[in-house]
Amino acid sequence: MSTATPLRLSAEGITKTYGAFAALSDVAFELRAGEVMALLGENGAGKSTIVKILSGLVTADTGTLTIDGETVTITGVASSQAAGIAVVQQEYSTVRTMTVAENLFLGQRSAPWLWRPGRLVARSREILARVGLQDLDPRTRVEELSVAEMQLLEIARVLARDARIIIFDEPTAALSDAEIVRVLEAARRLASEGRSIVYVTHRLGEVFEIADRVTIFRNGRSSPPLEVADLDVDGVVARMIGRELGDLYPPRSSSMGEVALEARGLLAPGFRAPVDLQVRRGEILGITGQLGSGTAELVEALASIRPVIDGSLHIGGRQVQLRNRRAGIAAGIAYCSADRKRDGIFAGASIRQNLSSPWLSAVSRAGFIRTGPEADATKTLAGEFAVDTNRLGTKVGSLSGGNQQKVAVGKWSGIHPDVLLVEEPTRGVDVGARADMYATLRALAESGMAIVVSSSDTNEVLGLSDTVATFYHGRPTAVRPATEWTEHDLVREVMHREEILA
């Protein structure tokens, strides 16, 4: 990106405080026309605050904003949109029971005053084609779309407002590798039209694929933008966390115990073939595949959330019948879902209350919680999961994504399960917290626990796991030691590229 390219956005002296806490301190930020600027930093570094200020959700205490040479004042969402700024959110804002066309113009000032379906469909086709959805019928209900199509629809809704500055806030967090490609292509296409893109992500690989420059936030302060061509992953990480990260993944297990979990001919709704699987004590089994491949269905069946139609499940050599989640917990199976905000944490409760929630009976007597033993046990547990033991009274909803994930996983360690099932363990988690999570999962495995990690991140699966199992279209396709896989082979396996090219 040439320095001669005019500035689209310039922010100077942006400050935002909450009481004694400075979320942003004298931040400077710039964005050129037609540029993709990656916005990076650990959770709590300040990048979310600057995004909220630009989108009108938060008002800065001090500072100036200039867009295309004119000073603007953003005091709310309406003024942000009027300034030509739009946000593609990680969490979808569409109405699932309405059609694609209806969602495109819902709440848009550009929507025609007379709601004529034929005219809406025609205008929708033009906008959808610009994000790679030219084959999608605008009359389709949103609830029928794939996850990737819903994310692209979020981008298309932004285009309906004709925004000049588009902020992508973790747009690929819930997508598989193949679906990420479609979102990146859409972002590139928008930049080629002269729009300016702010791209927020924890997936550093995407930065080197799509971004022209990088702005890194740390401790509420911004660094001058850097050219992506002059950086590598290690350099970015060191600037984000203020130190060299070292090895992201801990060493694999050198020894494993007896079989802790075994599935024999397991069949559940969503499977197209029975599943045979073994996980030993001390082992981390990584399972991966595209959305709809069967990995989510398998984990739910093992967790006794999805009913088992046929086959058997054995824990420690003993066959168990898992009719509901309570039975799964009693059998020694802990489960952390991919959606921590929905069913992984109690956002309004404290860290202490969250950590003790699965094992309250152990610190209760006659229906009353013994606060002393609860406090002692949760303090120990928090220390094991690198959670600040001085903040046990803090509401979990106010924590960073990384700390929320630590609490979501850590609470289950208190029941001392034989098997721990974890879906997407680092979704929305910064690189420093990822390293902590990987070290914690490995430590749990070394203590004798059997761990099943389901992840759409192939690097994560390869780096963390002892054994990797792949799934495709509702059936298992391969199970091999992680050392026998390359990333190329793994991606091809889960996508069955040879079938696509046939």
From TrEMBL:
Task: Give the organism, scientific name.
Answer: Klenkia taihuensis
User: What is this protein's name?
Assistant: Ribose transport system ATP-binding protein
Is this entry keyworded Plastid? no
ABC transporter domain residues: 9-244, 251-498
Q: Which InterPro entries match?
A: AAA+_ATPase, ABC_carbohydrate_import_ATPase, ABC_transporter-like_ATP-bd, ABC_transporter-like_CS, P-loop_NTPase
Q: Name one GO molecular function term.
A: ATP hydrolysis activity
**Pfam families listed in its UniProt record:** ABC_tran
Annotated keywords: ATP-binding, Nucleotide-binding, Repeat, Transport
On the tree of life, the source organism's domain of life is: Bacteria
SUPFAM superfamilies (UniProt xref) = P-loop containing nucleoside triphosphate hydrolases (SSF52540)
Query: Which PANTHER family does this UniProt record tie to the protein?
Result: CARBOHYDRATE TRANSPORT ATP-BINDING PROTEIN MG119-RELATED (PTHR43790), GALACTOFURANOSE TRANSPORTER ATP-BINDING PROTEIN YTFR (PTHR43790:SF9)
